[in-house]
Amino acid sequence: MANTLFPLIIFAIPLAIAVPVVILSFRLAKRRTQEFSDVAQQIGFKFLGSTWRGPALSPVHKMCIIQSTRGGFKNVMIGSIDGLEAALFDYTYMAGKSSVTITLASFTQGKQLPAFELRSESIFDRIGDALVHRDIDFDSNPEFSRRYFLRSPDEAGVRNLFTPTLLSYFEQIPSDRKWHVETSANTLIVYQYQQLMKAAELPLFLGDASAIARTIFGAAR
Fold first, then answer.
1. Radius of gyration (Cα) for the chain, nearest Å?
2. pLDDT band for position 14 (50/70/90)?
């Protein structure tokens, strides 16, 4: 009898743990969706939920996280801010064997941008750049070059975009914000490194991200 029950107990224990976890995860996801819907209404955006295929991106240079990973969109809201078409959404993708969810903002305007990726520079970026030089530095702004990793297949276009005014703008941003900025044609993606924003944080996140987008589009010629 004991030998018969033992396999059942081994099976039942993980199941007893997994079921409440799944139920809790479902309830939290449902609550987050409702909170995002409420925020969308507060800021005058339209809530789409998961019925969205993502921003329009160029297939030529795949610099955006959405293009380099295979993921899905949730809690999507769209609207306009400061003359930019905008979308806020959760993006879930696989990193190795782990699932990662972050909050992204995308902005679109009728200006073509050179494809680039801008992020806080890490020790691994410095080591990698010593072996294969990809980081675009500016002798005129050593502080920017020290703090940020900037790569692009169109270095001339990026150097033309990043004027001294734009370089100084990014130097003024607190280093702990760890912004990621990625472009594709006339679309710009802004997010913070591995950050999943709470619903209450979305208005401030949108304001800060749109300020970055507006400044970059403003520098485009």
1. 21
2. low
Contact (CB, 8 A) for 125 and 135: yes
Instruction: Please choose, from the candidates 189, 200, 193, 218, the residue with its C-alpha nearest in 3D space to the C-alpha of residue 88.
Output: 189
Phi, psi of 120 (to 5 degrees): -65, 135
Annotated domain spans of the chain: 2-219
Q: Given a cut of 80, is residue 207 above it in pLDDT?
A: yes
**Amino acid type, 218:** G
Q: What is the mean pLDDT of the chain?
A: 89
Please report the pLDDT score of residue 123 as a whole number. Answer: 77
pLDDT of 61: 86
In DSSP terms, 90 is beta-bridged to 74, 103
